[in-house]
Design goal:
single chain, 261 residues, two-stranded antiparallel ribbon, 2 strands
Length: 261
């Protein structure tokens, strides 16, 4: 017994030859709604002019898209794109990496802060506070697209996904939406408002990276490993190895920041 996959059309809007996918809408809504909330929090930490706010949004979007794409190419499909380099530019066909996007945002925000002489860690805290919005929407669109599905399972809520065989699988995209989106968002909100007021700037960003890594590492046990990569040492996936690296960096950086304060 398994649940039926809803088979939602991944194309949200079609205007003649133009097709707007839910994936693109999720990126747009997640980025813009997050930025609106960031602007409110920035008022208490960093003053930015209207032009600087617009510039910061551009920097973040470029870091997100370029980092996410390059991360996917390097971490997950390097052999394929070495043979078909022009395919790199077909972003509309999917293929993004959270860890690459995360690195891209870290770098682009650093460049923005340096250019405008603004406190980098305070800016990064604000961005990380609203990042779970985009994570939640992104995982929901993964589910709509029937991609990044889970491993074969016998649980009652297993689903038969299109192009994934006839056996029911974990809806791991929904697990990730709940953990990396809702739960992480609530945890960061509580930490920001009740626990970290006396901690050094950058501490919230470290909590974001560390808690995300824990959530993602756990869900990867239910998610189907990437077919072109399989599993690595100790039967860990590429996603789990990247989470170990990101989580370790978060702990190290958090300790260093608070030693200085």
């Amino acid at each position: 017994m398994s649940l039926s996959f809803p088979n939602i059309n991944p194309v949200a809007i079609s205007l003649g030859p133009i097709h707007i996918h839910w994936y693109g809408i999720a990126y747009l809504v997640g980025t813009l709604s997050g930025f609106v909330l960031v602007k409110k929090d920035l008022k208490n930490k960093v003053f930015l002019t209207s032009d600087q706010q617009s510039d910061m949004l551009i920097y973040l979007c470029l870091g997100l898209v370029m980092g996410g794409r390059l991360g996917y190419i390097v971490f997950y499909q390097s052999a394929y794109y070495l043979h078909y380099p022009l395919e790199i530019f077909k972003i509309w066909e999917g293929g993004m990496s959270f860890h690459g996007a995360c690195l891209g945002i870290f770098i682009s925000l650093f460049l923005f802060a340096k250019k405008n002489k603004k406190p980098y860690w305070a800016l990064l805290d604000c961005v990380c506070l609203v990042a779970p919005i985009g994570l939640f929407l992104g995982r929901i669109t993964n589910f709509i697209n029937g991609e990044l599905y889970g491993r074969v399972t016998t649980v009652a809520w297993g689903m038969v996904f299109p192009n994934a065989g006839s056996l029911p699988r974990h809806p791991s995209q929904l697990y990730e939406a709940g953990l990396e989106g809702l739960l992480l968002g609530i945890a960061l909100y509580a930490l920001h408002h009740f626990c970290l007021s006396k901690k050094a700037s950058g501490t919230l960003a470290c909590y974001f990276a560390g808690l995300y890594s824990l959530c993602r590492f756990f869900v990867e046990f239910f998610r189907e490993p990437d077919s072109q990569l399989g599993l690595f040492i100790f039967n860990l996936s590429m996603g789990q190895l990247l989470c170990i690296a990101l989580g370790g960096l978060a702990v190290y950086t958090g300790l260093k920041l608070n030693q200085k304060s």
